[in-house]
Amino acid sequence: MKYFYISLVALFITLNLNALDIDQKLALIKDVYVLSSKECKPSISEDNSIDFIAGKALFESKVLSGNEDIACINCHLDKFGSADGLPLAAGVLGDKEGKERYFDGKGILVQRNAFSLKGRAHSEFVNYFWDGKAQIQDKKIVSQFGNQLSSKFDSIFAVASILPLIERDEFIGYNNEIEDEVGNKLYRNRYDAIGKIIRKRLVERKTKESSELADKLVAANVNISTFELADAGNLLAKFFEKKFPCEISNWDKYLQGSKSAISLSQKKGAILFFGKGRCASCHSGNFFSDFDFHSIGTPQGYFGVHSRHRDIGRAGVTNRVEDMYKFRTPPLTLVKETPPYGHSGAFKTLRSVIVHHFNPYEFYKLNDTYYEADYYNIGKVIGSRDSVLNAIDIHSEEEVSQLIDFLEAL
User: Fold this and answer.
1) Is the pTM value of this prediction over 0.90?
2) Which of 24, 82, 155, 226 has the most CB atoms in a 10 Å sphere around its CB?
3) How many CB atoms lie within 10 A of CB 35?
4) pLDDT for 128-137, tens place per residue?
């Protein structure tokens, strides 16, 4: 029913645009879609508050990892839009930045594309990660930790901030005291197991880094003798909110009334986006995401977090076959800063991911490696694609370029 309504809106816009100039057309789209500029707080590079200092220390500290060899900052860098610039993140044992993390061959692949932190603390975000494993349902926090631990966290974003700490390839690593303590424990029990070891490191202060982190946590009124992961999550979330807030884009400025904020090509791209491109069917709201789960038939490649090297997406959380190969609609704000795209990082450019929405054949035609890797799964993955994609009505390279230009204004 949702897609039927969106199609009617797109048809209405198309039929009513011909007699208007381009800004009048966009004014009509603004009214129909009830568009408004998002509200963003200014970015704070440094803050003298004790919470910010402690959150920053946690963000940069390797004390939270099993072998004390990786920190959050290693995969969330300013120069990559607070992501890592890689198709798949390189976790424990990885060294240096960007593609150099691949070169020594030591880093363990996390098997999903790292996400940006910018604007993620905003209240519009109701779930996190490609499969939505951390989410708000009926005003309650739902995650791998279970209901009993939810009350310890200030927000769902605080939960999302520390979920990487409970993953072997991202933080736990191998052959260390945290891995020994975690063993085969389920996620909710990993919470206590990991907290126990980090607490030991903070109290005993065996290294300069653990001692400095402990001092900053104590200053932020954290009792390190009872430290647990929620303490880290709550401080990290507060830090991220100030360090990586959403930003007012050129599109926001246009919605605020500045007609010169975006170019003519970007205005044409906006009309395509909300009209016959059908993009707004899923990429809606201030962050251009409905925070729902859809399939565009994203290539799998050689790696995946589930059995037989597959990534079944949302189905890995819900265990529902109808959720196979569905992933959360990625927010598009600042999307130009965070290539490559897709849960597997398969799309190197905005053009390639846009075209894949209406012509998945082209990707395999141009990428022999993915064709070889996905040969026996292509039919299943393509067959999972959302039906709304069949309604996309893009007919020229010029229109694709205009869509790209519009996305670069977000």
Assistant:
1) yes
2) 82
3) 20
4) 999 999 999 9
